[in-house]
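Might you be able to consider the sequence and fold that I enclose below?
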Amino acid sequence: MTAVEPTGTRGKTEPELAASLSGLSGVASGHDTLERTLVRVAQYAVGAIPGAEGAGLTLLDPDAPQTVVATAAFVRMVDDVQYDLGEGPCVSAVRDGEVHTSGNLGGARQWPRFGPAAGRLGVHSALSIPLLLGTEVLGALNVYAAPREAFPPEAAGIGRAFSGPAAVSVSNARLLAQAERHAEHLQAALTSRATIDQALGVIMSRSGVSAPEAFARLRTMSQEQSVKLSEVAQELLDEAVRRARARSSNPPPDPTPPLPG
């Protein structure tokens, strides 16, 4: 493994902590995209938690943990080791909904395989805080630092206070993303329905059949071509447009005989 060099400041001043917590409150009540919200949560965590040099957010998607954002590349590397081994502070926080921390990962008995691996990466301190919404575990906020015993005793308490609004902001962003996807699907369904209705009109005008008969023909074409009904309808409309344009550019000769001179 290649050792990494985390960057950041160990000490946090009171104004820095206040600014981070205040900023997080704004994130929780905002309407930003899911990705931007998660990035800001991770950034505020580094600013709020004493000793933090890098942070990332793990979400359950759908059941397996996945690092969705990280403030530094080494955070993803450390998280990936946990996922591969199935053990570590992040995995434990997600499983039991409790805060897990260690100031000497290389000697952490609770994670006998992950601890030494993280130490070889140059990361010796970890703090993982579950993101809880009621009794539901949404994921975990993971904070890391290179030195041993990097997190002072108050870091865990700050992390707990931080995790509440962080979980709310993550939940809000997820709900917003789901609503946007639902709206997109609804719009696509309405567009497809309009296309099908127009195609039925084309069939009815060409053959003089009823609406149910036109729909039956369109469905048969869809089954025979193994293509979605909306796609067959769109092809039919495109063909009708091409024919109309061809007729307008090449009009039939005027059947009226010329007047005698």
